[in-house]
Amino acid sequence: MIACFSGCGNSHLVADRLAQSLNDSVTAIRHDTDWNAADGDTTRMVWVFPVYSWGIPPVVASHIASATLPETLDHYMVCTCGDDAGLTDRQWRRMIRRRGWKAVGTWSVTMPNTYVTLPGFDVDSPALASRKLEAAAARIADIARGIRHHARVDDVVRGTLPWLKSRIIYPLFRRFMMSPRPFNTSPDCTSCGLCARKCPMGNITMTPGHGPEWGTDCAFCLGCYHRCPVHAVNYGRATASKGQYHSPESLP
């Protein structure tokens, strides 16, 4: 089974391609995921998720800590990142072993950038995003082969200063940079409700006359920002001049 958390679509693309290659099924990690209904015939669990500031998304960590799964499963990690993943693989291995499960192989897949809420961070150019998506297809094929052969590897792009990024910046990001309070909409909002329907946490409600309102159970995936068809969702003033990433339906 493949457990996938995806906000903007990158990890969903990877999980779907892996499922095709491995003849496996995908279970979406959401606020209402029922692990008791998961495929009981599986022999492995592949965790697919985006890197959050060189670490594991809190929602994924929460599901790892609480999911009821057979102890005999082999666990694998495939994370998506715009550039590098820091020590995300080591974080994941600690969490899996803390549950008494078997952590086998880890990989990262470079995908188009989606983080836009700090100065200096923006989406990739269309040309760069296209190159990343084209390269991802071959990368996922290699990962699928590794999973089929039970590869015990850590094939992750850690980048420069991974200890600083994952041990110092990541905890600060979780504590101070994931608040949903700055989310707002411009007058261009049409109240189409797409952001609310697609929110993996069920955290957005549509209020007549006011449009979307964000609750406190936010995964900070930025899917609402990137999916808005009229670019009306903002995060304070930080995203006023930033671009949007529109995930394709499938990989090349």
From TrEMBL:
InterPro entries, per the entry: 4Fe4S_Fe-S-bd, 4Fe4S_Fe_S_CS, EFR1-like, Flavoprotein-like_sf
Alphabetically ordered keywords of this record: Iron, Iron-sulfur, Metal-binding
Record protein name field: 4Fe-4S ferredoxin
Pfam families noted in UniProt: Fer4_9 (PF13187)
Coiled-coil zones: none
Domain 4Fe-4S ferredoxin-type: 178-209
Molecular function in Gene Ontology: iron-sulfur cluster binding; metal ion binding
